[in-house]
Amino acid sequence: MNWGEIKKQTLYKLFAQNSDGGIDAARARAYLPAMPQAACEGLALLCLHAKARRGRLTLDAGALSGEGGVCRCDLAEAAEDFLALETDGVYFDSGARRDRVSDYTLAGGHMLLLPKRSAGAWVIYYTAAPPAVTERTPDGEEPPLAPEAAALLPLYMASQLMKDDDAALASQYRADFERGMETLRRSRSAAGREDAEFFCASGWW
Q: What is the pLDDT along the chain (205 residues), one digit of tens a residue?
């Protein structure tokens, strides 16, 4: 689902109560300027809470700097789309096996402190931030989400855009979005992290 399709689906939801099911062109044009902001909010929620976009870093353990038996990695510098470290998202790969580790500290939400290792690799799974959507985003661009995650965006966008026009329907759309996001979160958790480098190979990164 690309940006143009997301906008179209949002408009269908905004005008769902019309007796003829059609879209009022004049009113639709009034909604369009507010769509990018609503899309950015929805993308952020999907990425942060539903883990709709994940990333992976592989760090050479021997190359990390540090002192006193502790090495450091600024995740915000190492990955430009870093948003948050995944729960239980730190692994050590010795070459023979990969183990989840817990003896690390995360300072300030992005500075990862790890025990010094002379060889091997740290594998870090993180929640990736969404790219910004603006009024200049081409209609043909696809969000960096799996189709089932992108399909939830019109629900959120419609819920925000029609709060002043139809509070009851806006609340219904938001509830549908939250339920869909929870289903997505559970499916992502069940899938495990071994296959979680990225959920979409194309998009805005």
A: 999 999 999 999 998 866 555 677 778 888 999 999 999 999 989 888 877 788 999 999 999 988 889 999 999 999 999 999 988 899 999 999 999 999 999 999 999 999 999 899 999 999 888 888 999 999 999 988 888 989 999 999 999 999 988 999 999 999 999 999 999 888 876 665 444 333 333 333 3
Which range marks the domain in which residue 59 is found? 54-128
Q: Which of 79, 98, 128 is the last residue of a domain?
A: 128
* CB-based burial label for 159 (10 Å; 0-12, 13-18, 19+): buried
In 3D space, the residue among 126, 56, 129, 120 whose CA is nearest the CA of residue 93 turns out to be 120
Shared domain check, 86 and 28: no
**Are residues 11 and 46 part of one domain?**
yes
Does 203 map to a domain? no
Question: Would you say residue 165 lies in a domain?
Answer: yes
Strand ranges in the chain using DSSP code E only, listed in sequence order:
54-60, 66-67, 70-74, 82-93, 98-100, 105-107, 111-115, 121-128
Phi and psi at 69, nearest 5°, equal 80, 10
